[in-house]
Amino acid sequence: KSETLTATRSMLILTVFGTVVVSLGIMVLGQLVDKKLESVMILHDYFTVFAVMSGAGFIGLLAFSSERQQGAVNMLKILSIAAAASVFLIDLTGTIGYIEYRLPDPDSAKSKIRQTFPFAHEPMFESMEYMGLLGPMWAGLIAYLAWHYNDRMFTDRAVKSVLMVMISLAIMYALFISLMGIVPTKIASVQG
């Protein structure tokens, strides 16, 4: 049992340390090349991928791991917290880009998108902005359920099924919202 806890703690430390190093590296590189806002938006993309991959890992572990492994339960808890933190950071970094995007300047990303392809702004970008606000609540609920149900995630079929459906829907929701943000930003990126 202590070996599994050690492996779980090691994974947690590696995940947190790796995410901090990558985040700081992106921010430092952005500062060095005077692309501060672009570095924030790269972090926005990074946290989106991290959240989706955490959810996929959660589903894989829940579907294919044995309920007898306490390490699996702990890893699910870690993945749920990692995904919830990532989703919160997605909204935080997205808000920073949102401020720049909304500038009333004729050279702003919003102005360029509206001139080039208005559909990309309304409804696509507008939908993404507001739909993304549900993400932290949804991810927080999943994290709460993972901690609340603990090893029942493996032993109670209903709990397992509900969590798998909720996470699958969350991943599809995240990918749909990402599409709503990718199309406009390929027309005119948010630049600072």
Describe the structure.
This protein has 192 residues and is mostly helical. The radius of gyration is 19 Å and the shape is flat. The mean pLDDT is 83. The protein is built from 8 helices and no strands.
Highlighted features:
mainly alpha, 192 residues
Topology:
Layout: H1 2-32, H2 36-64, H3 70-101, H4 109-116, H5 118-131, H6 135-149, H7 152-155, H8 157-187
Helix pairs in contact: 1-2, 1-3, 2-3, 2-8, 3-6, 4-5, 5-8, 6-8
Can you summarize this structure?
By secondary structure, this protein is an all-alpha fold. Helices cover 85% and strands 0% of the residues. It is flat, with a radius of gyration of 19 Å.
Q: Which oligomerization state do the chains in this entry correspond to?
A: single chain
Structural class: mainly alpha
Main β-sheet description: none
Strand content: under 5%
Name the average pLDDT.
83
Calculate Rg over CA atoms: 19 Å
Portion of residues in helices?
over 70%
Instruction: Specify the overall morphology.
Output: flat
Counting DSSP H or I runs of 4 or more residues, the number of helices is 8
The sequence of SSEs as H and E is: HHHHHHHH
